[in-house]
Design brief:
The protein has two helices and five strands, in the order βαββββα. By secondary structure, the chain is an alpha+beta fold. The protein has a single domain, classed as FAD/NAD(P)-binding domain. The longest helix is centred in the first third of the chain and has 8 residues.
Length: 100
């Protein structure tokens, strides 16, 4: 089942295989609505009125801007959430405007 009309998966490495388990690679590359973008670095998030409106990235060849409303960020399988305990909160939810 698919919930997005189109999605881009940005990877830092040459191939999706370097950052995902083989079963996930098979699922991701089998989806017609997912584009894998290798060598991509997010350079900016854009917002207006506290909502996300766009993302910019460089993919090694060009600079790209896409209008978006959601970004899912996955940075490794080992969570690094020690800093969260120092905030006295169990979770963090913030508007784009709160982060600047």
């Amino acid at each position: 089942m698919s919930f997005a009309y189109h999605a881009q998966e940005l990877t830092l490495g040459d191939y999706l295989h370097e950052v995902e388990a083989s079963y996930l690679v098979a699922r991701i590359t089998g989806l017609d609505n997912v584009e894998v973008v290798p060598h991509a670095n997010i350079t900016a998030l854009e917002g207006e009125g506290g909502s996300l409106t766009g993302v910019r990235w460089q993919d090694g060849v060009s600079k790209v801007r896409r209008p978006v409303h959601h970004v899912f960020l996955f940075i490794g399988a080992e969570p690094n959430s020690i800093w969260l305990a120092q905030t006295g909160r169990r979770s963090i939810s913030a508007k784009l405007s709160d982060l600047s």
